Amino acid sequence: MHPLDAINLNADLGESFGAWSMGDDPAMLDVVSSANIACGFHAGDPLVMRQTVRAALARGVSVGAHPSFPDLQGFGRRRMDLSPMELEAVLVYQIGALQGVAAAEGGRVTHVKPHGALSNMACADTALAETVARAVRALDRDLILLAPAHSELARAGQRAGLRVALEVFADRAYQDDGQLVPRAHPGAVLHGAEACWQRVQQMLDARALVSVTGRRLPTAIDSVCVHGDGAEAVATARAIRAGLVAAGVAVLPLPQLPG
Q1: Which of 213, 223, 74, 84 is nearest to 146 (CA)?
Q2: Beta-strand pair 208-210/216-218
Q3: Cα atoms found within 13 Å of the Cα of residue 165, Cβ hemisphere only
Q4: What is the pLDDT of residue 184?
Q5: Residues 72-82: pLDDT tens digits?
Q6: For 149, which of 14, 109, 219, 225 could close a Cys bridge (C-beta 3.0–4.6 Å)?
Q7: Mean pLDDT score across all residues of the chain
Q8: What's the burial of 125, exposed, middle or buried (CB within 10 Å: 0-12/13-18/19+)?
Q9: Are the beta carbons of 246 and 238 closer than 8 angstroms?
Q10: Which residues are CB-contacts of 58 (< 8 A; sequence separation ≥ 6)?
Q11: What pTM was computed for the model?
Q12: How far is the C-alpha of 33 from the C-alpha of 126, rounded, in Å?
């Protein structure tokens, strides 16, 4: 299928909050190899964080922080204008909280993946991307920055001397510049496990992002993301993992990837 020996499969998890339930984390944790765990600012709470970390570690799934703008009501999908100093503090606060939870469970946070509007904005805005990278490096320069391929966020992480893992999305459409098609646009989100697996195959075969117009943007691909909040998330993740394994590709936690 493609010349990859190993790849990572990640999902955004721990997004339940109080009495509100989101996704099927136990089922997803049986499939993915890395978990991006919400840190309380867009979803999640201390109990959910601890339960999700514990469940991930029990399955050998690597733990990552999934920090957001402080936007609980908007699920972190609304754009915000924070000063660099405030944003850096917001990120340190969230990542540090998950680091504490992971330490209490005998594990550690090994990567960071920004969520929602924060990620989308940092992918296009160099200054914002550099603030994110600076916050991650300030906490632990050994943290892996999980960032979309062809993004300012990935480039900022590399300039900061962080290890950067480049990800593609199984269930999202791309514009010609490599940015995600906004969720409000028709066709922005792919539906159905088979359609998502075919999209992943297409990108892995091409070693490129493939836009809605068919444009190919060559890139290394270290990780595939399946969003954990959809009704088809578990089936999609299972289909992708099965396809990768059938092709002889090892599905590994981020810290175990070569390089």
Answers
A1: 223
A2: antiparallel
A3: 30
A4: 87
A5: 999 999 999 99
A6: 219
A7: 95
A8: middle
A9: no
A10: none
A11: 0.95
A12: 30
CA–CA distances in Å: residue 114 to residues 36, 203, 220, 239: 9, 22, 20, 25
Whether the CB-CB separation of 89 and 97 falls below 8 Å is answered with: no
Q: What is the DSSP string of 76-140?
A: T-S-----HHHHHHHHHHHHHHHHHHHHHTT--EEEE---HHHHHHHHH-HHHHHHHHHHHHHH-
At 24, list the tokens.
Answer: 């099927």
Q: Which residues of 94-109 are buried (b: 16+ CB within 10 A; e: fewer)?
A: bbbbbbebbeebebbb
Helix (H/G/I), strand (E/B), else coil: 10: strand
> What type of residue sits at position 210?
V
State residue 1's pLDDT score.
40
Indicate the residue type of 225. Answer: C
CA-closest candidate to residue 172, choices 194, 188, 156: 188
Interior angle at CA 120, CA 77 and CA 205, nearest 5: 120
Whether residue 217 is predicted with pLDDT greater than 50 in this model: the reply is yes
